C-alpha cells in the first residue's frame, strides 16, 4: 500500500471510529485530522467533499464488510433458521464483555441513519441502500429454502429491523442478550 493510500485509510479509519463514538453531527473534521495524524490538506485531497464524503465512504466500507460477513454466515449452514441464528449469535458475541468502543469497528447504521435521514438526502440514500443490500441477502437465503417471494420479502425486512434494534439494545446494555433473544424467536418468525 502506498503512503497516499495509507494516509487515506488512516483518515477513513479514524472517521469511522469517531462516527461510531460520537455520531455524524458531533464529529468534527479537526477531530478526524487529529486522530488520523494526517495533515489537513491530505484530508481534503482524499475527500474533497469533506465530512459527508467521509461518512458516506465509511458507511459503504462498513456495509461491504458486513455484507460479506452475512454471506459467510448464511452460506455456512443450509437450514435457514440455524443459519440466521448463527449470524445473530456472531453479532451478539461482539457485545458480550464490551469494555471499549474500539472493539466495534463499523459505523453504527441506526445512529447515522436516524441522525441524518431527515436532513441529508445523500446520507439517507446510502443508509437505505445498505439496509436493502442486507435484506436482499436475507431474502436470497429464504427464497433458496422454499419461502415465497412475499414471505421472503416480509421476513427479511422484519429480520433486518430486529437485528438493528437488537444491536442498539445490546450496545446500550453492553451485552448481547437482546440479540440472543432475537435469535431464540427466529423459529416463530421463519415458520412457513
List its salient traits:
192 residues; mainly alpha
Distance between the termini: 49 Å
From N to C, what is the helix and strand string? Answer: HHHHHHHHH
The SS-based structural class is mainly alpha
Uncertain stretches: none
Q: Counting H and I runs of at least 4 residues, what is the number of helices?
A: 9
Total beta strands: 0
Please summarize the sheet with the most strands.
none
Characterization of the model:
It is built from nine helices and no strands. With 192 residues, the protein is mainly alpha-helical.
In short:
This protein is an all-alpha fold and 192 residues long. It contains nine helices and no strands.
Architecture blueprint of SSEs:
Layout (H helix, E strand, L loop, with lengths): L2 H20 L6 H8 L3 H7 L3 H27 L3 H14 L15 H8 L4 H24 L4 H25 L3 H13 L3
Amino acid at each position: 500500500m502506498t503512503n497516499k493510500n495509507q494516509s487515506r485509510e488512516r483518515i477513513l479509519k479514524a472517521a469511522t471510529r469517531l462516527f461510531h463514538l460520537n455520531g455524524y453531527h458531533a464529529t468534527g473534521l479537526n477531530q478526524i485530522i487529529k486522530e488520523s495524524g494526517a495533515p489537513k490538506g491530505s484530508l481534503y485531497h482524499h475527500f474533497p467533499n469533506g465530512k459527508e464524503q467521509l461518512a458516506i465512504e465509511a458507511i459503504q466500507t462498513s456495509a461491504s464488510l458486513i455484507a460479506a460477513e452475512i454471506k459467510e454466515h448464511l452460506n455456512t449452514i443450509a437450514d435457514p433458521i440455524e443459519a440466521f441464528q448463527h449470524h445473530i449469535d456472531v453479532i451478539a458475541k461482539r457485545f458480550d464483555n464490551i469494555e471499549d468502543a474500539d472493539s466495534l469497528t463499523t459505523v453504527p447504521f441506526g445512529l447515522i441513519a436516524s441522525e441524518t435521514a431527515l436532513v441529508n438526502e445523500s446520507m439517507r440514500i446510502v443508509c437505505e441502500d445498505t439496509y436493502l443490500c442486507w435484506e436482499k441477502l436475507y431474502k436470497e437465503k429464504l427464497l433458496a429454502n422454499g419461502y415465497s417471494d412475499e414471505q421472503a420479502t416480509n421476513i427479511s425486512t422484519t429480520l433486518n429491523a430486529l437485528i438493528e434494534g437488537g444491536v442498539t439494545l445490546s450496545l446500550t446494555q453492553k451485552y448481547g442478550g437482546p440479540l440472543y433473544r432475537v435469535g431464540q424467536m427466529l423459529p416463530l418468525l421463519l415458520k412457513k
